[in-house]
Structures are given as structure tokens and as C-alpha cells.
Amino acid sequence: MGTMNKHSTGSLTDPTEVRLILGQNLELNNGEIASMILDVDEEIKMDYGDPIDKDYFYFETDQNTYQVGQRNIYRFESIECDGSDIPLGSFTLNNASGMFDVASDVATLFDGTRCEVEYVPKIYNVLAKNLTVLRLLEVHTTWVGDRVQDPRISRLRDKIDQIKSKIMSCGFDVMRSSQWETWDKRKGDYVYQDTNNTF
User: Does residue 56 sit in helix, strand or coil?
Assistant: First the structure.
């Protein structure tokens, strides 16, 4: 993965996402869910560091669209050029594809400049919402001896184990979408867009 050096600006999930997985079996208010989300955010940061990935690219006046290596991200955090944060409003962001379009005046201003894009990969959101549901079920589920009554708990544990394995094996790189290739800072070689990780 890229270097993770900034602090993410928000939680990795929200009560609405958690409720979609949790269903209506538990009567919980948003405050209780939000509190568990904060606990899970801290748990993930303890395990993996702050879940922000950073990649590099160069703006070019004839190139408006760029893509980070992870095609499905949760949130763009920042784009910085020549030591200056560029307002995210200067870009058209597409989290589902991991792509962003840059306004022509920004591309012209920073033509040839090495820039950094920081983002939260979607996989951390997937982990956070499932882990939050698991923690809520563990707190509110009836146990008989050492056996749990809710079968969703074992299924969620299996799913979370799969997600964690995926995190340990993933890498994230930036793509120039017009040329379908970019420099891989870990391998010292070019990688092609169709080899990007998806989740």
C-alpha cells in the first residue's frame, strides 16, 4: 500500500450503512450506532494505521482524467500540488471508479507538477460497517454458555476475516487513464490499468 501519513477527516462508515446490514432486529438509536462506529474506527487505526492511501501523478494540460489504482474508493481526502492543497471542488470526483477529472485552469496552472492524491480505499469502509454490525450484535445478542444464539455473528466473523486478508494482500497505485499506465513506486516499473485491484 502507499504511505499513510495524514489523519482521515471522517468516520469510515455511518449509521445508515450499518442499519442496512443490521436490519431491524435490534432497536438501536443513531447515537449508539455512531458511538460504536467511533470505537471501530479506532480499532481499525490500531490494526492498520490511519486508512489513507497516497499516490503520485503529474498534471498535464492535455490530460483531464486521472485514476487511482483502487477503482472503488470510499472517499477522496485531499489533492496536493507543489505543496498546496487544491480544493476538492476543483475536481469532479467519482468514488465508484476511483477517477477524478481536473478543471482545465487547474491543469494549466500545475502543468508538469508532481501532485499527491490521498484517499480512503473502499475496503476500509466495507470492513468498518461489517465490524460495527458484529460489535453491536456481540453486545446485544443472547449467549448460552459459550454459544451464540444469532447465526449472523459467525457469518460476519468469516466475512471480516476475508476482508482483512484482502487488505493485507492489496496494493494501490495511481493510473493515468489516457495512457492506461503509471509508475509503480513499489516495483519500479509500469503497471497497466487492467491489473488494478478491485473490491
Answer: strand
